[in-house]
Design a protein that fits this description.
Blueprint: H1 2-26, E1 31-34, E2 39-41, E3 52-57, E4 60-66, E5 69-72, E6 84-86, E7 95-102, E8 108-109, E9 114-119, E10 126-131, E11 135-141, E12 156-161, E13 164-169, E14 173-177, E15 186-191, E16 196-198, E17 215-221, E18 224-230, E19 239-244, E20 247-248, E21 256-260, E22 269-274, E23 279-281, H2 293-308
Parallel strand pairs: 1-9
Antiparallel strand pairs: 2-6, 3-4, 3-7, 4-5, 7-8, 7-9, 10-11, 11-14, 12-13, 12-15, 15-16, 17-18, 18-21, 19-20, 19-22, 22-23
Length: 309
């Protein structure tokens, strides 16, 4: 019988603790503090030297002082005004802090309760750059940040040109025209409710010099034709493609294309100049070369022999 009463008592205690925990968890955050930071929990009352003071954390007494005696905690746990000092906060110190004050007549005074939430501070990010055709992607990269799964732990990102904010939201990257951001100092900031950190500034090195439409012409030489792609003011990183009747000619990447004139008769050729910033294609070209003089002499000699015979 005594065992059953003991078990029932333990059950009641467990239920009570669970209820207290749920009540604390259900309350909103009054203050946010970074893990590792310091915080002063306000008393909300002007303490007198004759008052009795208790501080509780989630219902458990952590400090108790009478005018003539310190019962629980250390004297440097509080300030002269009775506020509670928290230093180098840990995650498990998040919760409900309540104070009780009784005057010398034993009357309880009005005090303030504070539900404290702790968050991991963010870490310094870096800006990574990806060059696309005519655009550049800036990405705010960092070591793992607080996961942001709680509503109050959302991570935000800000983007800056020369320390002037241009974007504020939750996107980790932004895409801009490479030409428009040439030589601009770009940085990003990551933050949450308790901390923020900003990256170093840098400029992208994506090639932003665009190519211009190339011209194309051919030169007859013996039994071949040499087709040349002329691109004015060519950027250093420009590359070439060649096309025959709209299809890419594989492995032809030079400024000139040498082909057999007879085999390429009535074919349409074009070239394309491109780099990371742009691409331009020439008009189509069809040559009128008829072959080498030796070939024509041989053909004429053959026809003469046929005629004489």
């Amino acid at each position: 019988m005594r065992t059953m009463k003991t078990m029932a008592s333990l059950l009641n205690i467990c239920v009570f603790l669970l209820c207290c925990s749920a009540a604390v968890a259900s309350q909103g955050c009054d203050q946010f503090v970074a893990v590792g930071g310091n915080f002063i929990v306000p008393l909300g009352y002007k303490l007198k030297t004759t008052d009795k003071l208790k501080w509780k954390f989630n219902g458990i007494i952590i400090f108790h002082k009478r005018p003539e005696k310190l019962i629980e905690g250390k004297s440097d746990d509080i300030n002269d005004d009775g506020s509670l000092k928290l230093t180098n906060l840990k995650k498990d110190q998040a919760g409900l802090y309540t104070a009780e004050v009784h005057d010398d007549n034993g009357l309880q005074q009005d005090t303030k309760s504070t539900n404290l939430c702790t968050l991991d501070p963010v870490k310094k990010p870096t800006v990574n750059i990806t060059c696309l055709a005519s655009e550049v992607v800036f990405t705010c990269s960092h070591d793992p940040q607080p996961d942001g799964t709680k509503q109050y732990d959302a991570i935000y990102y800000k983007w800056f040109y020369y320390d002037k904010m241009i974007s504020n939201g939750t996107e980790t990257s932004m895409t801009r025209k490479a030409a428009e951001t040439e030589n601009l100092l770009v940085s990003c900031e990551v933050g949450n409710k308790v901390s923020s950190a900003k990256s170093d500034s840098l400029t992208h090195t994506c090639n932003v010099k665009t190519v211009k439409k190339p011209g194309i012409h051919g030169e007859c030489k013996d039994s071949e034709v040499i087709i040349t792609c002329h691109a004015p003011q060519l950027p250093d990183n420009a590359q070439f493609k060649w096309f025959q009747d709209g299809e890419v000619i594989v492995n032809e990447t030079e400024t000139s294309l040498t082909i057999n004139s007879a085999e390429s008769k009535n074919k349409n050729f074009s070239c394309e100049v491109y780099n990371q910033a742009s691409s331009k294609k020439s008009d189509s070209f069809s040559h009128s070369c008829v072959g080498s003089s030796k070939y024509m002499q041989h053909l004429l000699h053959y026809k003469c022999r046929m005629w004489l015979s």
